[in-house]
Design a protein that fits this description.
By secondary structure, chain A is α/β, with parallel strands linked by helices. Chain A is built from 20 helices and 32 strands. In chain A, helix 12 packs parallel to helix 13 and helix 17 packs antiparallel against helix 18. Chain B has about 35 residues and is mainly α. Classes of the chains: A alpha/beta (about 775), B mainly alpha (about 35). At the A-B interface, helix 1 of A face helix 1 of B.
């Protein structure tokens, strides 16, 4: 039995003792592997991604970083429930709690960066992949609020951070905040839409500050086409956009195409507002802001508006480039001054025109302003005007809506004719409002009409204008030949006088009317005695002697029956123009001047300037001197009377003024006494003339001498009167100095009351300023 | 140790148990078989 025990039991025991460890050693590794995988699978199923397990001899060790103790406990329980697990060891670390639980998606120039706490690695990895990132400084933290809500918020942050250029979206517990600048205006718009829709459910919204995208260059503009203002470009915020959109612009329609952008220049909002307001005042224009530079261009309706706009924008350093203002009353003028300077005034439509004017010789365009609204005929009108000015010595052309006005003095008679022709041609292009062109002033205004024996009248000399020329030619008859030149400076009744003269000329067989600038002289042979009588009648009735006329008619061949004395009797009475003054005629008749042995066959009428003493001396020709040649008609011979025709009695002292009448009249006509302007002091150069006058007056020592002073119409009438008296007295004083008896000198002042020439012209004025000396018989 | 654990382990050890049983059968058969001499 014992042998059996040894034989069987012992080897069996040995085999068991050796075989069991062998079996266990052979299977332990695979058992542990199996348990480990089963544990992992269990944790996976339960969602404990943070957890890891290690198995050794069927002992299970749970490790990892947990954010929740509850979670760890659950995991342990689940592991313990596994088959074949001997025991489970808890080696889990708990993550530090975060309060508040913060997560942040930050937009940087390099891209989106995530930071803050995540509840576990898996969530972190998920967020990273959503953000398309490899790494992030995320930390695992415990203390996460509701997982689903938080996760939705974190995903929201990660996704929308892409819209930002800089800034961040942060999640603090369940409060979502956004602060940053949009990448583009599209992103800006998207962000606005997203934020308006609200954060994911369960989250509350913290501060939201979305800055529009950075725009460079920052451009804003407003365009006004006259009806509508279109605003486009970038504005920094909704408020500015709204203000621009609703700006009060006096009923001008407004369209805005604005985008939002940041990076605006300082004071953008106020500046854009201001520019818009000013733009609305213009007729059309553009306002722009490009970065720091603002600019307003356009057309102001008036000068005042232009000024107001410039003043308003001066403080904002805006560049204001305005077109010329519109001018309602558009005009321009060019005045040619005697020195050759052409002063332009009024308006020009543009700089080009202005420069063109400035290029004209002698032009002064300083007064010429720029203005819009020039009439259509502006260019044609100004061109015509300037062409006209070239033919003038002085003058003015002005252009208005109603046409061109031209006034001035032509350079020469030929230029005068050319001017008139040019202006009548120009009528097709430009309407002429007024023309007042004078021919040049003639220094010595002469005119003659000569009638040859054939009856044809030849005219020469000056005429003031075309109308006068017509009238004169009409009066001269159709056969008249003419060589008339235009000149200004005629006395007022020049045309009437020529007509009178031509009428008188009709009565002559042959003859001449001459005007020498001061007086009219009619010479010639009458057709008949009746014609002579008619002429003399005209002289009397029209008081021509008083108007500066003189006449010297040749005697008709006297019939032998006619006695000279009877002829004398038939002579007309001297002109009754000045009944106050007994004319020297009657006296002259009786006074045979010894110096003239041969009496001229003429009736002499005193030279014109001595019209007040117009002495018609009559000299009936003696038979034996009939064929004597007549003295020159325009040389007023001293009044003479043929000795034959008069009584042989010696002249009475009372009437002994013949010797000085003619010289004195001539002297008066010469107008040889000059005064200082506006004063009664006699100019030194008149001294010789006064000496001469004193000698002339000495010829008739008993005659009363009237010194008349006359002035032109310049200045006040009363003062002129006083001046004329003072001047007459000055002459008397000078004569007394030269030995003329003061007792027979009388000073008379007429002031400007008796002009003998046109006071409108300098020449006429010169003639009107005069001293007239008359002699009268007796004391 | 629960029955489930025992069965789980048998799942691993049964080839060894089977080998031991086979060896026991061979040895037992050999000792009880009539001898030739």
């Amino acid at each position: 039995m014992f042998r059996d025990l040894i034989k069987w039991v012992l080897p069996g025991t040995v085999i068991v003792l050796c075989g069991t460890p062998f079996c266990v050693a052979m299977t332990a590794a695979s058992i542990d592997r199996d348990i480990s995988s089963a544990g992992r699978a269990a944790l996976q199923r339960a969602g404990h991604a943070w957890a890891d397990v290690a198995v050794q001899n069927r002992n299970l060790f749970l490790s990892g970083l947990s954010t929740d103790e509850q979670d760890t406990a659950t995991a342990l329980r689940q592991l313990l429930a596994l088959q074949a697990v001997r025991s489970v060891f808890d080696q889990v670390a708990l993550a530090p709690a975060a309060n508040p639980f913060a997560f942040k998606a930050e937009a940087t120039p390099e891209g989106v960066k995530l930071s803050g706490g995540v509840p576990d690695q898996t969530t972190g990895a998920q967020l990273l992949s959503r953000a398309e990132l490899q790494a992030a400084s995320l930390e695992i933290r415990s203390g996460m609020p509701q997982r689903e809500t938080w996760l939705a918020g974190a995903q929201f942050a990660v996704e929308n951070a892409k819209h930002l250029d800089q800034g961040e979206i942060s999640l603090s517990d369940t409060t979502l905040s956004l602060r940053g600048r949009a990448k583009s205006s599209r992103d800006y718009r998207d962000l606005h839409i997203i934020m308006r829709a609200g954060p994911p459910a369960g989250l509350t919204l913290g501060t939201v500050e979305i800055v529009p995208p950075l725009v460079a260059p920052y451009t804003w503009s407003a365009q006004f086409d006259g009806k509508r203002i279109t605003i486009s470009g970038t504005v920094p915020d909704q408020g500015t956009a709204e203000r621009l959109r609703t700006a009060e612009l006096s009923a001008i329609a407004l369209t805005s195409k604005l985008v939002f952008g940041s990076g605006e220049p300082e004071g953008f909002s106020e500046l854009s507002d201001k520019l818009l307001q000013q733009l609305a005042k213009l007729e059309y224009g553009t306002a722009t802001i490009i970065d720091g530079e603002s600019r307003l261009t356009g057309a102001p309706p008036s000068e005042a508006v232009a000024q107001a706009v410039v003043d308003t924008l001066r403080s904002s350093n805006s560049i204001v480039v305005l077109e010329a203002p519109r001018i309602d009353d558009y005009w321009t003028s060019a005045t040619l001054q005697p020195g050759g300077v052409i002063v332009f005034d009024g308006y020009a439509p543009d700089d080009e025109t202005r420069d063109a004017f400035a290029a004209v010789e002698g032009a002064d365009v300083n007064y010429l302003k720029l203005g819009r609204g020039a009439p259509d005929v502006y260019q044609a009108g100004t061109a015509l005007g300037l062409r006209a000015l070239k033919l003038m010595s002085e003058g003015r052309v002005s252009l208005r809506e109603d046409g061109l006005s031209v006034s001035g003095i032509a350079r020469s008679s030929a230029d005068y004719e050319a001017l008139m022709a040019m202006l009548s041609e120009g009528l097709t292009a430009v309407e002429l409002a007024a023309i007042d062109i004078k021919p040049p002033v003639a220094a010595n205004y002469e005119w003659t009409a000569t009638k040859a024996s054939g009856g044809v009248i030849a005219l020469s000399g000056f005429v003031p204008d075309a109308a006068a020329r017509e009238q004169i030619l009409e009066a001269a008859g159709p056969a008249a030949s003419e060589d008339l030149t235009y000149a200004a400076g005629a006395q007022t009744d020049f045309v009437a006088s020529t007509q009178v003269g031509l009428e008188l000329l009709q009565q002559l067989e042959d003859g001449r009317i001459g005007y020498d600038g001061s007086g009219w002289i009619l010479t010639g042979t009458p057709r008949s005695e009746a014609a002579r009588a008619a002429i003399e009648q005209s002289f009397t009735t029209q008081q021509l002697a008083g108007k500066g006329w003189s006449m010297s008619l040749a005697q008709l061949p006297a019939s032998p029956q006619v006695e000279p004395p009877s002829l004398a009797v038939e002579e007309p009475a001297p002109p009754a123009s000045d009944p106050m003054k007994p004319t020297a005629a009657s006296v002259a008749e009786a006074t045979p001047p010894p110096s003239h042995p041969v009496a001229p066959q003429r009736e002499e009428i005193a030279p014109p300037a001595a019209e007040r003493s117009a002495a018609v001396t009559e000299a009936p020709a003696p038979a034996e001197t009939e064929k004597a040649s007549a003295p020159l008609p325009d040389e007023p011979a001293p009044a003479t009377a043929p000795p034959v025709a008069n009584a042989p009695t010696p002249p009475s002292p009372q009437s002994d003024i013949t010797a000085c009448t003619a010289p004195v009249a001539q002297f008066s006509a010469r107008n040889a006494i000059f005064f200082r302007p506006g004063a009664a002091a006699i100019a030194a150069e008149s001294s010789a003339a006064l000496d001469e006058l004193a000698i002339d007056l000495a010829a008739c020592p008993d005659a009363t001498v009237h010194i008349e002073g006359h002035t032109d119409s310049d200045g006040e009438a009363g003062r002129n009167m006083a001046l004329s008296v003072a001047r007459a007295e000055a002459v008397i004083a000078a004569l007394v100095e030269r030995g003329v008896s003061a007792s027979r000198l009388y000073a008379v002042g007429y002031g400007e009351t008796k002009p003998i020439a046109d006071n409108a012209t300098p020449e006429g004025k010169r003639i009107n300023r005069r001293i007239v000396v008359t002699v009268q018989p007796g004391r | 140790m629960t029955l489930a654990t025992l069965l789980y382990l048998l799942g691993f050890y049964w080839p060894y148990l089977a080998a031991a049983a086979a060896m026991g059968l061979v040895v037992g058969w050999r000792s009880f078989a009539p001898k030739d001499r």
